[in-house]
């Protein structure tokens, strides 16, 4: 919204206009179609994952694989990430968690470690998108 809607303790002139034509005042607070398009396009570009994005736990550095202790730690980390994904899936399928189930409610996938590409991107990137 570009403007605030008048409130009772605001200027009397604004409140009179609001009481006379509330729809017109509401429409004045909204951005133009072009402003909304620019904001949506910018947010989409800044929050999209790169096609060559690397995700947490997906690939080990070659130097890590040469060190048995580091390789074991990376494999343990990967196993823990799979456990976390199982927990997320379990919670998404639990009907007692009402915020996760129901008509029209999308399952939580934002930080699901190995999710497929979609609205929320996929997985947990090694770095931020912006």
UniProtKB/TrEMBL annotation:
It holds the Pfam family Lipoxygenase. PROSITE patterns: LIPOXYGENASE_3 (PS51393). Keywords: Dioxygenase, Oxidoreductase. One of its GO terms (biological process) is lipid oxidation. One of its GO terms (molecular function) is metal ion binding. InterPro entries: LipOase, LipOase_C. The keyword Manganese does not apply. The keyword Chaperone does not apply. Residues 1-130 form the Lipoxygenase domain. This is Lipoxygenase domain-containing protein. It comes from Zizania palustris.
């Amino acid at each position: 919204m570009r403007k605030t809607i008048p409130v009772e303790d605001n200027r009397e002139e604004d409140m009179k206009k609001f009481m006379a034509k509330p729809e017109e005042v509401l429409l004045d607070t909204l951005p133009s179609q072009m402003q909304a398009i620019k904001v949506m396009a910018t947010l989409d570009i800044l929050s999209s994952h790169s096609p060559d994005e690397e995700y947490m736990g997906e690939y080990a550095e070659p130097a890590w694989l040469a060190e048995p202790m580091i390789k074991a730690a990376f494999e343990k980390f990967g196993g823990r990430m799979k456990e976390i994904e199982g927990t997320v899936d379990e919670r998404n399928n639990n009907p007692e968690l009402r915020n996760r189930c129901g008509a029209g409610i999308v399952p939580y996938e934002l930080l699901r470690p190995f999710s497929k590409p979609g609205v929320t991107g996929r997985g947990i990137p090694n770095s931020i998108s912006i």
